[in-house]
């Protein structure tokens, strides 16, 4: 059985997980490995660097609703999701990103339309510009939600539903 | 024990032990230093004495001069030079002299040098050989002036400073505990003033931005909630009796009117139909009240079974559409878990059905029959049901009152309702150890999220 490793950009909002849903639905392979990715700047002060841990950084981004929604997705596609992990890249360097793709064995990258994700959070940047220069297969997905306005107020699990109704 | 005293005792004991250790250490190290220093001075004198005895006479004068010039005489300094008997390793002590302590002599003969103390008299000596090969020992003894006078002074000094320090410590810890405990006591005093009659009182907030301010804020917050609850409790009876009274009045009026004179058969039928509908309304209201009262208990009287939530939602949809034809309910099962075990909850079907249909009916009602979405999903431990409408929403300032019985938001004037549905639903969800969360934006819509724990089924 073939498994495909899909890289999906995320801004750690529940809404962004709709991309995961779409990516799994559109992929033909039986099994998928999901890697959620966000760009995050490293801390600049030396004391923060001293106690830096990637796991802690990723954890600080994940809200309770986000985790809950991830679990819901995992339950939904229980037989298709092989593994599910959240990661950050810390540099905008192209070579670094190529190396990252190679090391993690990414088979496909999901590219949403430009303004669907919001990377204005603290210390975070969009990994989207890096995607254009890489050799891995790109999968362009439309990401839209009818409840655009309601979602901006508060993060809700319900953002995961109704995305295409 | 009062925290006030506890702080004082703690501070005093910590400070006191610290100063005690400090003083003891100083005393010990100073006295041991003075001993060693004094022995060294004695040893130098013993060495020069030995030199004078053993060197050639022409060198002796130089050494004597040196001693005269640089080595001052110590108090009660005495010098002893004795020959060691090669036969029995004993000393030849001239008659009329006390001789030396045996311990010191044994030490010197064995190791080449030695120290000894007898009360305030200190001895130090070395062994040496003269030019013609005889072994001698030279010993110098003196009173240790420092030990006898300075140490005593140091002792007094430390004890008095310890006492003064103790006084200061008591004073400081009193001051500290005052400043720490005083604001807490103030809060206690103010909270004591507040009772059922004057719930409108609030605590004064301290200016500093510390945990005490937070405590006061929390108290005030709690008082806010208490006040609203008490207010609604007070209003509950009047509201309830008013609600029950309205249909009763119309029943009585209708019956009165019908009986006032002889009428046609059709008119009686019409009157009776009116009475019936009013009575039905009354029944609905009393039933709702009864349910609210029942579910307000701990749920001990309810029977719980394992049930499937997707089944429940389908059932609710059917019921709601039977009650209200215009309802457009869209189910979203796109995130249904693959494992059906994750859809099962332990609950009372009737109650959950009631709660959900209440929420869905409300969603239909307050959105003028625009589409209502009901979604179902499951995380690892909870089943999540989301009901979302695009109706009138709830004003932000009124969010905190929505669970109060008979409360109706200010924008619900055009809609019929009793204000019992949501509190009832929340009570039911609470019985099932779940969570009910309402998010709303006025004029845009409301989303209600229900989390229910997944049943743990042992096979």
Automatic annotation (TrEMBL), chain A:
Name of the molecule in the record: Universal stress protein family protein
Source species of the chain: Aequorivita echinoideorum
Automatic annotation (TrEMBL), chain B:
Enzyme class: transferase
Keyword Transferase: yes
Matching PROSITE patterns: HAMP (PS50885), HIS_KIN (PS50109)
Sequence ranges assigned to domain Histidine kinase in this UniProt record: 239-456
UniProt key word Transit peptide: no
UniProt cross-references to Pfam families, sorted A to Z: HAMP (PF00672), HATPase_c (PF02518), HisKA (PF00512)
Source superkingdom: Bacteria
EC number per UniProt: 2.7.13.3
Entry's localization field: Cell membrane
Bilayer topology annotation: Multi-pass membrane protein
Classification via CDD domains: HAMP, HisKA
Protein keywords: ATP-binding, Cell membrane, Kinase, Membrane, Nucleotide-binding, Phosphoprotein, Transferase, Transmembrane, Transmembrane helix, Two-component regulatory system
Catalytic activity: ATP + protein L-histidine = ADP + protein N-phospho-L-histidine
Protein name: histidine kinase
Gene source species: Aequorivita echinoideorum
């Amino acid at each position: 059985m073939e498994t495909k490793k899909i890289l999906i950009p995320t801004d750690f909002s529940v809404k962004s997980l709709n991309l995961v849903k779409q990516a799994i639905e559109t992929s033909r392979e039986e099994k998928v490995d999901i890697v959620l990715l966000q760009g995050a700047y490293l801390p600049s002060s030396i004391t923060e660097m001293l106690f830096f841990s990637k796991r802690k950084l990723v954890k600080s981004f994940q809200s309770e609703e986000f985790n809950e929604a991830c679990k819901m997705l995992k339950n939904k596609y229980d037989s298709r999701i092989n593994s599910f992990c959240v990661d950050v890249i810390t540099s905008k360097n192209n070579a670094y990103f190529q190396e990252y793709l190679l090391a993690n064995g990414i088979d496909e990258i999901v590219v949403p339309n430009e303004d669907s994700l919001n990377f204005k959070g603290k210390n975070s940047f969009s990994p989207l510009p890096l995607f254009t220069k890489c050799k891995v297969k790109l999968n362009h997905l439309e990401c839209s939600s009818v409840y655009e306005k309601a979602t901006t107020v508060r993060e809700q699990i319900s953002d995961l539903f109704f995305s295409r109704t | 024990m009062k925290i006030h005293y506890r702080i004082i005792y703690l501070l005093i004991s910590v400070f006191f032990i610290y100063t005690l250790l400090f003083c003891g250490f100083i005393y010990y190290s100073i006295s041991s230093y003075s001993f060693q220093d004094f022995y060294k001075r004695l040893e130098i004198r013993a060495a020069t004495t030995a030199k004078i005895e053993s060197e050639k006479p022409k060198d002796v004068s130089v050494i004597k001069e040196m001693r005269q010039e640089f080595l001052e005489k110590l108090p009660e300094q005495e010098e002893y030079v004795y020959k060691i008997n090669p036969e029995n390793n004993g000393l030849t002590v001239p008659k009329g002299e006390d001789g030396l302590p045996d311990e010191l002599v044994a030490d010197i003969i064995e190791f080449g040098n030695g120290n000894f103390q007898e009360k305030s008299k200190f001895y130090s000596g070395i062994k040496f050989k003269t030019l013609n090969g005889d072994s001698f020992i030279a010993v110098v003894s003196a009173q240790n002036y420092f030990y006898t006078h300075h140490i005593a002074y140091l002792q007094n000094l430390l004890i008095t400073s310890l006492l003064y320090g103790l006084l200061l410590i008591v004073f400081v810890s009193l001051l500290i505990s005052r400043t720490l405990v005083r604001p807490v006591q103030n809060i206690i005093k103010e909270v004591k003033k507040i009772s059922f009659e004057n719930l409108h009182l609030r605590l004064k907030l301290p200016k500093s931005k510390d945990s005490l301010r937070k405590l006061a804020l929390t108290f005030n917050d709690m008082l806010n909630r208490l006040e609203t609850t008490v207010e609604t409790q007070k209003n509950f009876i009047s509201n309830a009796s008013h609600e029950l009274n309205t249909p009763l009045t119309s029943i009585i009026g209708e019956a009165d009117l019908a009986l006032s004179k002889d009428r046609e058969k059709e008119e009686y039928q019409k009157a009776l139909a009116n009475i019936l509908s009013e009575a039905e309304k009354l029944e609905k209201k009393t039933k709702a009240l009864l349910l609210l009262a029942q579910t307000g208990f701990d749920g001990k009287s309810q029977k719980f079974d394992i049930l499937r939530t997707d089944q429940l939602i389908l059932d609710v949809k059917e019921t709601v559409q039977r009650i209200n034809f215009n309802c457009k309910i869209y189910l979203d099962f796109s995130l249904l878990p693959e494992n059906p075990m994750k859809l099962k909850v332990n609950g009372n079907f009737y109650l959950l059905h009631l709660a959900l249909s209440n929420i869905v009916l409300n969603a239909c009602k307050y959105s003028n029959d625009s589409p209502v979405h009901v979604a179902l999903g499951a995380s690892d431990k909870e089943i999540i049901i989301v009901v979302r409408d695009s109706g009138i929403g709830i004003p932000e300032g009124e969010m905190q009152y929505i669970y109060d019985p008979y409360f109706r938001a200010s924008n619900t004037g055009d809609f019929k309702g009793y204000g019992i549905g949501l509190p009832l639903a929340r009570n039911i969800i609470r019985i099932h150890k779940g969570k009910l969360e309402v998010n709303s934006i006025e004029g845009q819509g409301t989303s209600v999220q229900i989390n229910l724990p997944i049943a743990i089924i042992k096979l």
